[in-house]
Design brief:
The complex is a heterodimer of chains A (115) and B (522). Chain A is an all-alpha fold. In chain A, 63% of the residues lie in helices and 0% in strands. In chain A, helix 1 packs antiparallel against helix 2 and helix 2 packs antiparallel against helix 3. Chain B has 522 residues and is mainly alpha-helical. Chain B starts with a helix and ends with a helix. Classes of the chains: A mainly alpha (115), B mainly alpha (522).
């Protein structure tokens, strides 16, 4: 049961993110929702590589007989975090641009494109 | 020469990537050189893509392994599975690569004069090159995590390009925000699916996963994540809300490239269903899901297009509607994939129609968006009610518009007719109703373009457009090149279907060819 705890956390993160995207009307809160989903997915990836009692995968310094954790998911997560920063920065800067032109962040009022 | 050929897959991606970061430096020296450098880099990419295409179509799929001793060494020192990131370019990948190369090259040429009056063009050209890199990468990569990275590169670059005019106007920023949220959600769901595959099989390579996939409960979840999000990025109907906004607010050459970018997602959808799962999935169910996406896109797209007054918004809804044809054709192929008799009888033809339509659509929809851009360049408006009588002053643009409109409506001597006919006659054998709906949609498309033609080009010369004249030469050149391709494809469809489209379809259907290239004769 305790092993599955990270996966439950993943579901909570992604669920909260989707809830935020669907029901919140503020552009900044939508950006937060995207971040929550991203954190959930990153947690999922990093959990896949976890091994109980294993050490960091640095080949030259491992004590003999000690098992190492899998390095690939960590590399994937690191890449995904870096990409995540870029997307978050872009979302927030576009939200800033919208605020400059519409003087509001409410999605009900940012609606010039329709039909 | 042979050495260059071996490295062609990576050079096609690397040259625009390098150029993208050179552009700001070039711009510091000479502002005029930015556009020329971009065009030059994309021209080299186009030439290399054509060379690579000739090689792939005569020899077979090419792999390029990063960091290996030789680019084709997929399994180093007795390993049973590939561990390095690799590009795997088969007939389908290079087919999409050709579209990307042509469209981005012509988009850069068109931008030379179209974007002349804007500031910050070094950023514009950098982003255009990065968008091209992302699209090439999505189409060439053989690694599912690498696919996610290129998907994000393409999304971020296209969002920044859509909201390029956002510093002066509100609407482009609004469209950019929508597209950003949509594409980050879809990229994250792709990443989730990557995690599911990695957790089960410890593999990230498309071909290696395809060879061991079991269609377990987890694989079903991964498929359920991948199909809707890739369809969303391609602009299929229940998830199409971003398409008209993004297409209409982006600058015209970018809209043309965005069409090709959505098709790269469509390609990924086909790659996942055919190369990754193939017959291990319940083909009839998933096939019908894709067919229903296609039907909804065709019908809702065209009915929404008829009521539009903004010319680019109208064309964007038509883009959704045409995506429906591709989904319909390939969906029928997927539905009968497990049934060899039906596949031989009409499945392959339906897929040929669908895949051929991808290229045709990129060409004529690109041309139509460029003519809309030309109208905007001279009149300063996209509202059809404010235009009129432009055929008097913009003769070439009028001819190009007629060619594009006839092609999208599926009139005989143009390329839209060739692919639509393939879809009609093969889908009719699968289910007559689907074929009839496709024809009705085609008629509505014609009706809608007759309306555009009438309100923008016909009628007396309007006093406010007395000064309007033909657009500059670089814009004419881009539109003329696309028109030539459209007419050539329309006159010799057999040549294209036999040499380019049929190999692409077969490389999707025959999964072992794709996996065998990496894993070696399985």
């Amino acid at each position: 049961m305790i092993d599955n705890f990270p996966f439950i956390a993943v579901i909570i993160f992604v669920g909260l993110g989707i809830y935020t995207l669907m029901f919140k009307k503020n552009l900044i809160k939508i950006a937060i929702g995207v971040c929550l989903i991203e954190n959930g997915v990153n947690l999922f990836l990093i959990t896949l590589g976890y091994k109980k009692g294993a050490v960091a995968p640095i080949y030259t310094q491992v004590p003999s007989g000690q098992s190492m954790v899998l390095p690939t998911p960590q590399a994937l997560t690191l890449t995904s975090i870096v990409i995540g920063i870029a997307t978050t920065a872009l979302i927030l800067s576009i939200a800033m641009m919208i605020y400059k032109h519409y003087s509001t962040l409410d999605t009900e009022q940012v609606r010039r494109l329709r039909g | 020469m042979n050495n260059l050929l071996n490295h062609a897959p990576i050079l096609i991606v690397a040259i625009p990537l390098l150029a993208a970061f050179l552009i700001p430096i070039v711009g510091k020296v000479n502002k005029k050189a930015e556009g020329i450098t971009t065009t030059f880099a994309l021209g080299i990419s186009l030439a290399l893509t054509i060379i690579l295409a000739i090689k792939i179509l005569s020899v077979g799929p090419q792999v390029y392994v990063f960091g290996a001793k030789s680019p084709s060494l997929t399994l180093p020192s007795g390993l049973k599975f590939p561990i390095r990131i690799m590009f795997e370019v088969d007939a389908m990948g290079i087919f999409m690569g050709l579209i990307t190369a042509i469209v981005s090259f012509l988009g850069a040429i068109y931008s030379l004069t179209f974007m002349g009056k804007y500031d910050g063009l070094d950023k514009y050209y950098s982003l255009l090159l990065l968008l091209t890199v992302g699209m090439f990468g999505m189409e060439f990569t053989g690694d599912i995590f690498n696919f996610f990275v290129f998907l994000e590169i393409a999304s971020i670059a296209s969002v920044a390009l859509i909201s390029f005019r956002g510093t002066d106007l509100g609407e482009p920023a609004e469209a950019g925000f929508k597209y950003m949220v949509v594409s980050s959600i879809s990229a994250l769901m792709v990443l989730f699916a990557v995690g599911i595959f990695y957790g089960q099989y410890d593999l990230l390579n498309f071909a290696a996963i395809a060879s061991v996939i079991k269609y377990s409960q987890l694989d079903k979840i991964a498929l359920g994540l991948l199909v809707p999000v890739l369809a969303m990025k391609a602009g299929a109907v229940p998830m199409h809300m971003w398409t008209p906004d993004a297409y209409s607010e982006a600058p015209a050459p970018i809209t043309m490239i965005l069409v090709a970018a959505s098709q790269a997602s469509l390609y990924a959808l086909f790659r996942v269903t055919f190369s990754l799962y193939n017959i291990s999935l319940s083909t009839l169910t998933v096939g019908w899901v894709i067919i229903i996406f296609g039907l909804l896109s065709m019908f809702i797209g065209v009915t929404m297009a008829i009521i539009q007054k903004d010319i680019k918004r109208l064309m964007a809804y038509h883009a959704i509607s045409q995506t429906g044809y591709m989904l319909l054709g390939v969906g029928v192929g997927l539905a009968v994939l497990a049934n060899p008799a039906a596949l031989q009888k009409y499945g392959i033809t339906a897929m040929e129609g669908g895949i051929f339509h991808i290229m045709n659509h990129a060409m004529y929809k690109g041309l139509l968006f460029l003519t809309a851009g030309a109208l905007f360049y001279r009149t300063g408006t996209r509202d059809l009610n404010k235009m009129g009588g432009l055929a008097h002053s913009m003769k070439y643009t009028t001819i190009f518009f007629i060619i594009g409109a006839a092609a999208i409506a599926g009139l005989p001597p143009f390329n839209g007719f060739a692919s639509k006919l393939l879809i009609y006659e093969s889908v009719y054998r699968f289910n007559p109703l689907l074929s009839i709906i496709a024809m009705v949609v085609s008629i509505l498309t014609l009706a809608s373009f007759v309306k555009v033609f009438h309100s923008a080009f016909l009628g007396p010369k309007l006093p406010q457009f007395k000064e309007a004249k033909e657009v500059p030469r670089s814009m004419i050149f881009a539109m003329a090149a696309l028109s030539c391709i459209i007419i050539f494809f329309g006159l010799f469809p057999n040549l294209i279907v036999k040499n380019l489209v049929h190999p692409a379809v077969m490389s999707l259907i025959e999964q072992f060819k794709y996996t065998g290239t990496v894993l070696g004769g399985m």
